[in-house]
Amino acid sequence: MAGAGDSFRALLRAANALLQQRRYHAALAVIKGFRNGAVYGAKIRAPHALVMTFLFKSGSLREKLKSIAQATYAHSRNLAYFVFTYKGLLAAQSRLQGKKIPFHSFLAACIGGWLVFGDNNPINSQIIMYLLSRILFGLSRLAVEKGYIPQPRQDPFPLVAALVWGTVLWLFEYHRQTLQPSLQASMTYLYEDSEVWHDLSDFLVYNKRTDSK
Known about the structure:
Blueprint: H1 2-19, H2 25-56, H3 61-97, H4 102-117, H5 122-145, H6 157-174, H7 181-192, H8 201-205
Organism: Erythrocercus mccallii
Protein name: PXMP4 protein
């Protein structure tokens, strides 16, 4: 038993020594990026899938839990693959050119996005829309910082909020099929289900009656 413990401690010391080697830093960063992508994807998707599944999906408990597990796995896997691909391509480009330049990041991410997130499915669609909204905000701020557009005299956020809500409700009311399914479900719950009730039970307690009254 003691011999096994000594062997394990020796192996642990060797692994820690390897992790300190600068020559392996790029390769090790790719591996840790894969790990962090998998963990972060699971942390983000699991609670979201849990809430959305139990709020809007029908079916047995087993079916709901299976749906949550599948969504969590898909998000975790895709993010892990993307981080692995991105960091690997970034390291390869830097090694080939002898230095890191901004275009390396753009090219590596484009390739990773095409390979990992190119399939048009609900999980990838949500991730891309999440990123797109933040890109628009980021590019707007960058344009102001670089002087491409003047600094607003007043905070433009109230106008942005008004236009976003005005546009999304117009689309929901008149062109619903253009919206992502989970957004349709959320808005149906908020704006249509609130128009229908039969008694106090489905007015305050439940959204919809489950009996046959």
